[in-house]
Amino acid sequence: MGQNATCHPASEPGRHRRKKGAADEASGAPPPDGLAPAPVGIAITSGRDHRVVYATVAFQHAAGTPNLPLRRLLGRLRRDHADLLDQVLDSGRPLRMPNLALRPQRRGAATDRRRVSLQLSRLQLASGGEGLLVVAVETVSAAGAPAPSGDYAQDRRRLLRHYHSLMQDEARVVWVMSPLGHVVESSDTWEELTGQRRGEYLGAGWLRAVHPDDRTGLRGSWRRSGTPSRWEHVFRLRTAGGDYRHVRARAIPVSERATATEWIGTCADIEEEWQAGRRRKLLDRAAAATADIAGLDEVLRLLTKVIVPTVLDGCGVYLVPEITGAPTEPFSAQRLVSIVRQDLRPEPQPGCVRFPPDCGFVRAVTTRRTVHEVFPPGQPPPALAPPGAEDWFRMVGANSAALIPVIVDGAVAAVLDAVVCGPKDPISEADVELLVRMLDHAHTHLSNAMRFQRTQRVALALQECLLPDPPDVPGLEITARYRASAAAVEIGGDWYDSFVLPDGTTVLTIGDVAGHDLAAAVTMSQLRNMLRGLAMDRREPPGDILRRLNIATESLYADGTATCVLARLAPGPGGGWQLDYSVAGHPPPLLVTPDGTARYLRGALNPLLGVGYDRRRTSAVAQLPPRGTLLLYTDGLVELPGENIARGLDRLRRHAGALSRVPVGDLCDDLLARMPIANQDDVAMIAVRLP
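Below the sequence we write its predicted structure tokens.
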């Protein structure tokens, strides 16, 4: 379309419009300003005789006056070239005919041949019937044409390069658009691609096929292209099948001066190219984010920050214990990381989650296959959302979820719980494949975690064998708990014990051997058994027994040290209960009364075991109230790195006081849940509820 020419597609053959002055340019007279014509022309043909019913000035300048068949206007085309016009009309497949030599038929035209490249596309005419949209790009100008010069010459050469690049594009759609962004004409492949009919896509109607989230950016991009330049934009387009695919639209202004009067463009499906680029970019980001990171938690946290919100609206990563066969009872998995888009918070918190045996999570683990479902927003299938996250799924309007097992060393090491919400496109199979590839960056860390789990399970089994069940004493409720370090592989030196002496007195003891390895566990077992023998051997104050245990520790374990609390619980002279106890470098016992008052028993504090201290060790006596609770514990319950232990002791006192009336087993469990426990240390507890 030449300067000051406007496209008016004909409703029937032979009808077209030209603005005043176009005939002068078509006659061969040079433009008033001495500039050469635009190097691109557009024509529309009708019927099988391919009669030209509309042509821009530039097309007429190259090929002649309209109202004649295209074969005549373009000069002596070879027969096979002429047959190609029919093939485009019959098949609807666009065709490019490069570097054709033309001899215009009109008077006054230059005698030298012109060379053009043609882009032919089928279109539906407003009058009904079919025709061709012809785009002619000049490759060699005719001799005698006024030669452009200066800045305009550079602009012309630049635009000509753009025109050739555009026409070489492997595009499904060719279109003509006004400067306002309204489609004037398009090849009928637009209807094949989007399902929109001619009356639906002309003008601004084509924008209705653009993804709603992409329309604002598309309009802004078009507005910024007002000066003659190459325009290009990538957006999502709804296809005739109802899904969205990424397309690349390109356009070049048809203009000889600073203002574009029309644009000619193409539209190509680049979904595979876009997905490949997105995949490559995200994998590079995942690799960069996890480089030189040693910890599994940190690796997974950084990976999820790459995944959300680029791919997903929310995700969680669960570390899965090894299971054999299909479980018939609920099993637990550790949610290590949970992250969601900022506007969807709060997210489900990390922690231990128990899954029923018939849920999608268990199915993903046992079958080693992704469980992937799309559903109405906010209505997930009952077995899909993890326990405790159902309300969150409904609140955020989740529309799809995928439970992706991560296979490491032949076993399921983890499961990624992926969620997309609201009007956003649901999770696709391509998204699932990409997520699996991204999680490959955590493969080494997950493999290490699995080895850690296996070793820790063996250690815990051994530890449980070493720690006995509390005795059954009439009138007393005795409960013990042991929680291994989440970060250490080997068993530690924490222990608890409780047994009944021949005279009916109940003995309670708890201790901690320095170190966290097999040697510490062996020493712990030997000291515990030695303490049993010393306490059973004779009836004497607890401090005296600990003095003899200290001598044995120094003699048998030259470099070993340990802390300990030894207590004897027996009915008191007034009908209540009396506690005789001694503390060797250990946190003090905690006494909780039924009204919620909690205080530490700070009598009989002595140095730890295994040090050069041969003096007498003190003992203390405390009267315990009815329905009171006595709690012995190791320092892992109250000690955090970098924090004064006094803060931990105060925290334990407050929590225990608030739990004074709950069953003693629940009290222990709730304390383990409420107290901020460091991953580096074990925790042992033994509690007694008095009658």
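The CA atoms of residues 293 and 299 lie 6 Å apart.
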